[in-house]
Design goal:
single chain; alpha+beta; GMP Synthetase, Chain A, domain 3; 2 domains; 3-stranded antiparallel β-sheet; 3-stranded mixed β-sheet; 3 helices; about 30% helix; elongated; KH_dom-like_a/b; OsmC/Ohrsf; OsmC/Ohr_fam
Length: about 140
């Protein structure tokens, strides 16, 4: 897996291109020379976590024949006040929307993703206090 990150020539904007060809822009806040044209790199870490665990949970719930209509993942984080301002705590909250969802199956999918399958979560847990929970919303 290879990613190329290229400065856009002014300000603090960088475009990252993954080996799959997909590109995303990252930028800094205006107060540090950015133009706010993309998410901050640390926001990208949280987005990657959400995408990774979300894919796991949706795949598992589909295999468990759960009638899911939507999954939303809300991630809250805390960072160190000292430089480098690393994450110290991350909480992942799943909102699983569906019809007649089985609480035990949803819990199992969320737990398996957080504790076994999500590579991003496993990588972060080495240095970050990680937690997760879920709620089922009938639709």
């Amino acid at each position: 897996m290879t990613t190329i990150v290229k400065w856009q020539g002014s300000g603090m904007a960088f475009d990252a291109t993954a080996s799959t060809g997909h590109t995303v822009r990252m930028d800094a806040a205006p107060e540090v020379g950015g133009e706010n044209t993309g998410p901050r790199p640390m926001e990208m870490v949280l987005m990657g976590l959400g995408g990774c665990t979300g894919i796991d949970v949706v795949m598992m719930l589909q295999k468990m024949s759960q009638d899911i209509k939507d999954v939303q993942i809300e991630i809250e984080s805390e960072r160190s006040s000292e430089i480098p301002k690393v994450f110290t705590k991350i909480h992942v909250h799943f909102k699983v929307y569906g019809s007649e969802l089985n609480d035990k199956k949803v819990k199992r999918a969320v737990d398996l993703s957080a504790e076994k399958y999500c590579s991003v979560s496993k990588m972060l847990e080495a240095t970050v206090e990680m937690s997760h929970d879920f709620e089922i919303i009938e639709v």
